[in-house]
Amino acid sequence: MTNADQREDDGLPELPGEELATGTQLSNGTYTIVRHLKTGGFGMTYLAHDTLGRKVVIKECFPSGMCARSSQAVRARSRIYAPNFSNLVEKFVVEAHSLAKVSHPNIVNVHQVFKENETAYMALDYVEGHDLLEVMGQASLALTPAGVRSTLLKLLDAVGAVHEKGLLHRDISPDNILMDSRSNPILIDFGAARELERSAERAASTLHVVKDGYSPQELYLPGGGTRARGATFIHWLQAFIT
């Protein structure tokens, strides 16, 4: 989620798609969709309000390549995709429960995970701020050398906390790190986070996720493993600092 994704509706009409409509209620009315933020390969992200009027982010398990929406329900596009889709929904739930146990000031908080509309959802913190991609591109937002060092140490500590729980983020990039109102980095968008699995299972799975320019090279190849976890993140940080 970038800062642009998170800002309030600017009044411009949205192109029609398969996203949930504004006003849709989830989890027995606990959350009301305000607007669609973005669509990724494995899910859709929404700005929502809870019953107390607070902003939250809702992430919907929606692998567009294998599913489609019928009314509000999400179903596999064909019987061929049904087992994989069902498996992905279950992994999404397990992942959300795992991430909820990662308590760290520089990792977005998971408030709730629930199943609805034949898929699954996460409710996450809404973070006001600019992402690092914006910070790197705008002189007015530029970090001082001390700020770069502080950001680096906090993010490394956050990644360490993720790894201690047996998880990989695998989508760490400037657009997935928000600088909040106090200039603290917050690691967001764990849509590509996956529990550690055997390489053979992962290579054959539809959950195999890479991000061009940031994922370790072996993950682009059939049978690629995770021994270099975090390596690309370190390479990016080195480039960022220099």
State the CATH superfamily name of the largest domain.
Phosphorylase Kinase, domain 1
Main β-sheet, in a few words? 6 strands, antiparallel
The total of beta strands comes to 13
How many structural domains?
2
Q: State the separation between the terminal residues, measured CA to CA.
A: 25 Å
CATH class type of the largest domain = Alpha Beta
Proportion of residues in extended strands: 15-25%
Radius of gyration: 18 Å
Mean pLDDT over the full residue set: 79
Assign a percent range to the helix content: 25-40%
Structural class: alpha+beta
Neighbour order of strands in the largest sheet: 1-2-3-4-8-7
What would you call the shape?
Answer: globular
Low-confidence stretches: 6-16, 195-208, 225-231
CATH architecture of the largest domain: 2-Layer Sandwich
Q: How do the SSEs run, as a string of H and E?
A: HEEEEEEHEEEHHEEEEHH
**Number of helix segments?**
6
* CATH fold field value of the largest domain: Phosphorylase Kinase, domain 1
Provide an overview of this structure.
This protein has 242 residues and is of the alpha+beta class. It folds into two domains: 3-125, Phosphorylase Kinase, domain 1 (2-Layer Sandwich), CATH 3.30.200.20; 130-241, Orthogonal Bundle (Transferase(Phosphotransferase), domain 1), CATH 1.10.510.10. It is built from six helices and 13 strands. It has helices at residues 3-6, 82-100, 132-137, 145-164, 199-203, 231-241; strands spanning 25-26, 31-39, 43-50, 55-61, 67-70, 73-76, 110-116, 119-125, 130-131, 167-168, 177-179, 185-187, 194-195. A hairpin with a 4-residue loop joins β1 (25-26) and β2 (31-39). It is globular. The two termini are 25 Å apart.
